[in-house]
Amino acid sequence: MDDFPPASAVISAFGGIRPLAAALGVTHSTVQYWSESGSIPEWRRQRLLDLAAAKGISFTDNARAA
Known about the structure:
By secondary structure, this protein is mainly alpha-helical.
């Protein structure tokens, strides 16, 4: 079972598509694709968790609402 939050919760927690893309150093179209598909590739997830922890962002609470 995949317990990683949905893409919408992660994107929202970072302030939207463009802010998340900038934080990760990827194009906004990459993050937009995650938004449209509803999931984030597994190989990106640890980086997101690390970045969220460093910035004091919690998207686990948002996942329940998404």
